[in-house]
């Protein structure tokens, strides 16, 4: 008894192109495509109610929330107007609403998820997120001060924020915009 060099499929597994299709008329290699007569109608948009003028805020426009900027060597420029997690490859909980900014650090002194910077009552606040090489604040005219992990600490205007060996200078962004 001789054995074939390949596996033979069972009868009927591969359709015969010349055989008629079970529905009649078409061969096994032809397909029937149904095209709907027309797309269902799209409902008209519902107009949004416009509040009466008495319901709109009154008084002078209030200033926009202050923002801060962190600038570093190599063109690093991070605007901070909400919670922002800094690191080489920061992880952020989507429910927190924080932004994530990856910092290039060839020396690898910045942890993947290093620090949280945010504006609180118009002040820049940094929190060390348990980084390996720590966070230091170097105010103008003073020496650097280490901040303990998980303790929000204010960063003065003009101070240098040190994430590991990476320095970022903090500066307040002038409030030149208003929000009505």
UniProtKB/TrEMBL annotation:
The keyword Calcium does not apply. Keywords: Phosphoprotein. It comes from the Bacteria. Residues 1-70 are annotated as: Disordered. The lineage of its organism: Bacteria, Bacillati, Actinomycetota, Actinomycetes, Micrococcales. Pfam families: FHA. This is FHA domain-containing protein. SUPFAM superfamilies: SMAD/FHA domain. Residues 84-137 form the FHA domain. InterPro entries: FHA_dom (IPR000253), SMAD_FHA_dom_sf (IPR008984). Coiled coil: none annotated. The keyword Phosphoprotein applies. Residues 7-20, 38-64 have a biased composition (Pro residues). PROSITE patterns: FHA_DOMAIN.
